[in-house]
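Re: [ENG-882] Designed sequences occasionally contain unexpected residues at chain ends

Forwarding the minimal case from QA. Structure tokens:
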């Protein structure tokens, strides 16, 4: 903890403006809050405790009350936000967006310069492993950084070198009461499974494995920063006015090609980069290397990537009622404006949710619109039914039919007509499945 304290002290001495601290009430965040109190005693910095009641456990209300009492006793400003309802089954992503929106409101309100969070060494291990398993960008494999400069403020994660066990011990030594979230023991959420089964194994092999992962993360970020500088040296030579010169592009080695594509994607999506992953990069490079002189693919948010002989253009398609064939990974904004996203769990049994077993299908998955002769085997029925007839029976207008998403596997087997019908590949909650997709 001494290292974390020195890190915070060094940062605060640069600019003694208020600190917003995201505090859940768990052992890691209570250890952080205690560390900030010591910092305040030495520097006089103002601390704002930002607490989010996710409203999913019966004890959440009492935890908020207990934390507010602690803050009042220690003369810390307490700010509370309660999430009353969730707009998506992707709980973790939605909750994160709401949390950081709340934090940024407080940064503006108190003219704060820093946001501190209690992300620790175990969190970093979990994040890196999850991204390796799911797939990510090169930078994404680094997990998260200790310091993020958001221009108007900095995000500081001073506990990144410390384990969860060390934080619990710190709380016990200093008689800090903390909340225990029993949902962390559930196997429903992906992160919990990594936490319960993989971390103990890794720590048994090496008690300081979190520092190895931190070194891995820092190395990835160093290489990524270098590559970004190299891309900026050549980008204007091969990419202008949303158009890429394919001949010049193909003279680059494959590593630099991928970096250039990632750079272009970054300029297009900016704050929506969560919609993009390594498979989109591969799809663009495959398009460039295609023997077809004229071809195109769609990316999320109706971004159409069109190859025309020696040029590759990136444009927003404001009339996305043409044929499309998009690769699906974890989240995809569709040409009709709706979203398909992979979720960790859902109690929904409607046609807006689909459960699949990857052993029964051929990955990766794709989303396309209808084509002549499309048929699917509807769940609970024998034989095939024409997609055209399903649209008619469901009273889907001709305009909507042209753009309605159809989920298929790599063999073009129709798996799901989102919002309308499930195929024989859909699994019930009692059956074995490892993919859950929701249509919003």
């Amino acid at each position: 903890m001494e290292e974390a304290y020195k890190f915070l002290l060094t940062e605060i001495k640069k600019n003694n403006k208020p600190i917003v601290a995201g505090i859940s009430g768990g052992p890691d965040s209570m250890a952080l809050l205690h560390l900030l109190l010591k910092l305040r005693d030495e520097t006089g910095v103002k601390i704002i405790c930002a607490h989010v009641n996710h409203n999913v456990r019966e004890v959440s209300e009492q935890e908020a009350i207990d934390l507010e009492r602690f803050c009042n006793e220690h003369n810390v400003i307490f700010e509370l936000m309660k999430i009353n309802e969730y707009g998506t089954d992707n709980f973790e992503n939605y909750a994160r967006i709401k949390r950081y929106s709340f934090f940024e409101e407080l940064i503006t309100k108190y003219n704060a310069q820093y946001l501190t969070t209690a992300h620790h060494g175990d969190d970093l291990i979990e994040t890196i492993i999850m991204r390796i398993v799911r797939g990510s960008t090169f930078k994404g494999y680094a997990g998260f950084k200790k310091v993020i400069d958001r221009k108007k403020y900095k995000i500081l994660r001073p506990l990144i070198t410390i384990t969860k066990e060390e934080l619990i011990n710190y709380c016990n030594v200093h008689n800090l009461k903390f909340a225990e979230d029993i949902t962390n023991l559930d196997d429903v959420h992906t992160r919990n499974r990594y936490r319960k089964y993989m971390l103990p194994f890794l720590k048994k092999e090496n008690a300081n494995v979190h520092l190895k992962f931190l070194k891995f993360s820092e190395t990835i970020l160093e290489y990524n920063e270098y590559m970004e500088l190299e891309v900026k040296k050549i980008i204007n030579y091969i990419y202008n006015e949303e158009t890429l010169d394919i001949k010049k592009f193909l003279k680059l080695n494959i590593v630099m090609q991928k970096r250039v594509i990632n750079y272009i994607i970054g300029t297009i999506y900016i704050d929506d980069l969560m919609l993009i992953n390594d498979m989109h990069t591969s799809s663009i490079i495959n398009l460039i290397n295609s023997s077809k002189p004229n071809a195109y693919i769609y990316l999320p948010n109706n971004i159409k990537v069109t190859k025309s002989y020696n040029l590759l253009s990136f444009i927003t398609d404001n009339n996305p009622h043409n044929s499309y064939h998009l690769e699906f990974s974890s989240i995809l904004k569709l040409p009709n404006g709706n979203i398909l996203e992979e979720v960790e769990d859902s109690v929904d049994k409607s046609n807006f949710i689909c459960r699949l077993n990857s052993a029964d299908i051929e990955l990766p998955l794709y989303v396309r619109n209808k084509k002549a002769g499309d048929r699917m085997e509807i769940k609970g029925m024998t034989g095939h039914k024409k997609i055209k007839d399903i649209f008619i029976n469901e009273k889907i207008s001709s305009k909507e039919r042209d753009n309605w998403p159809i989920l298929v596997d790599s063999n073009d087997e129709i798996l799901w007509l989102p919002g309308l019908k499930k195929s024989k590949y859909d699994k019930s909650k009692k059956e074995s499945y490892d993919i859950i997709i929701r249509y919003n």
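QA comment: On inspection the terminal residues look reasonable. The longest strand covers residues 47-53. Proposing we downgrade this to a documentation issue.
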